[in-house]
Amino acid sequence: MTTTTVRQVVETPRRPDRTAPRETRLRALDGLRLVAALMVAAYHYGGRGGEVTTAWGSSPKDQFPTLSGYFAYGCLGVQVFFVISGFVICMSGWGRPLKSFFASRASRLLPAYWVAVVLVTAVFALPMVAFKAVAPSDALVNMTMLQQPLGVDRVLGVCWTLWAEVRFYALFALCVVLPGASRRRVIMFCAVWTPAAAIAQAAKEPLLDIVLMPEYAPFFIGGVGLYLVHRDRRDVYAWGIVAVSFLIGQHYAVRSLWNAADPNAFAHRTTLGIVLVVALGFLAVTAIALGWLNRVNWRWLTVAGALTYPFYLVHEHLGWVVIHSLHIGLGLPSAETFALTVASMLLLAWLIHRYVEKPLTPKLRSALAKAR
To answer: What is d(CA 135, CA 157) in angstroms, rounded to the nearest whole number?
Structure first.
């Protein structure tokens, strides 16, 4: 779910390799990343209850009687993010030393994240805002990105996914980047992590759950497998990794997100609907990996990919404030409020990208790469 530049990292072969992918920007992956972020936004604005009900003045189910049931599936955009992340992290870590990998990851995650934490804390502290800010001490801990394991209140509701991403980065860095990425090492990484995560699920040991992430591992592993497919579409082991990851991943998605039909429930997600969305996510990344979407090469998709991470960070909590101002304060209809809220969050994301990420990311990357 980060805005890593999606460029190809290819080992120099001893002889021409017809299966090696060409060095090109995968702009379709940028577009898919934004689609996943918009799915999550639809879920937060119109597919769930909670504090967004205060923003609307009533349940989103009343605001969107038809669409709310579809918006409820938007939370699966997170699983799509994880598949994309597996693909991109394997690609960006291939042939890169550990120090450079760490500098790249930290410089991409932290500047926009720090600004988002400060913005949400400051806005929620305003007396006219109906939502409660976290305690100052908790807000400071949030700057470390370790609030979840420390049991501290979160400033950003979406930051739990960043905690999963960070753990994936650490596993990949230690097992693949540190010794040096190669096809065999990446396959072994996937082949060991998959059963280890299953064992962790059976063992019910909290430490194993934290490290191995049984519920999210299949999506990261599936993305890694799809990068191997991108390098060589005839790689049987890579296809096997992808297939097993999808089969296990859809199980976890159904188990955690399915809810039985209940007239009192906010929305009813069906088993078939969940499996279908997960399958479409895997298929979309597969199509990109195989080069089927190479013609989707519009330059604006690069901008879309760059906006995704800051949009993802700020859209939920600041979106509540905008919804309340437009719908309750100005009396705008639900549809117009929804569209304007998304547009305003995209504009804010562009401002963060332009005035925070662009100047600070290269400076932070350079400082971390040079540090001893």
So the answer is: 15
8 A C-beta contact, residue 147 and residue 138: yes
Model pLDDT for residues 51-78, shown as the tens digit of each residue: 899 999 999 999 999 999 999 999 999 9
In angstroms, the CA 148 to CA 146 distance is 6
The alpha helices in 290-357, defined as continuous H runs, are: 300-323, 334-352
Confidence class for position 263, pLDDT limits 50, 70, 90? low
| Opening angle at CA 43, ends 223 and 272, nearest 5 | 65
Q: With the CA atoms of 278, 279, 285 and 286 taken in that order, what torsion angle do they form, in degrees rounded to the nearest 10?
A: 160
* Region of residue 331 (phi > 0: left; psi between -120 and 50: alpha; otherwise: beta): left
Q: Phi and psi at residue 291, in whole multiples of 5°?
A: 85, 10
Place of tokens 């991109």: 88
Say what the pTM is.
0.91
CA distance 334 to 327: 7
Identify the CA nearest to 285 among candidates 81, 90, 143. Answer: 81
- CA nearest neighbour of 34 among 265, 234, 296, 329: 296
Distance CA 92, CA 243 (A): 23
Q: CA 310, CA 356: separation in Å to the nearest integer?
A: 10
| pLDDT score of 90 more than 50 | yes
Tell me the pLDDT band of 49, cut-offs 50, 70 and 90: confident
The span from the CA of 28 to the CA of 352, in Å, is 23
Can you read off the two tokens belonging to residue 336?
Answer: 């117009």
Q: What phi, psi does 296 have (nearest 5°)?
A: -80, 80
8 Å CB contact between 54 and 323 = no
pLDDT band at 129 (very low <50, low <70, confident <90, very high): confident
Residues 6+ apart with CB under 8 A from 222: 83, 86, 241, 242, 245, 246, 249, 282
Q: How far apart are the first and last CA of the chain?
A: 29
- Ordered alpha helix ranges (H), the chain: 27-46, 52-56, 60-63, 68-71, 77-93, 98-124, 136-142, 147-150, 159-172, 183-203, 206-212, 217-231, 236-257, 271-289, 300-323, 334-352, 358-370
Type of residue found at 228: L
